[in-house]
Amino acid sequence: MSRSLFDKKRIFDSLSTKLNIKFRGTYDLVGWFYVDGKKLIRFKVPKGRGQITPGYQKEIRNTSRLDRNDFDKLISCPMKGPEYILKIRELQQQGLL
Prior knowledge:
two-stranded antiparallel sheet
């Protein structure tokens, strides 16, 4: 398994562009991911520069409902927004979300 650590800006940019999340906030950036017009997942990303600590990155990864490899793919580009929506719909069908 990959143990990638991403910086704050890269995570913010990936989530906002690929998943069309509109972030706002003062201390942390908070945004909602919508599926079929409904708020489904709340993302929280720290403001600023530099790397995110492994614990905070794990929290964001758990919030996204992805395993480590899929989260790395989402942030580092191979996974696009539609693929993420398919994974979320699979979790909904399984009753896990």
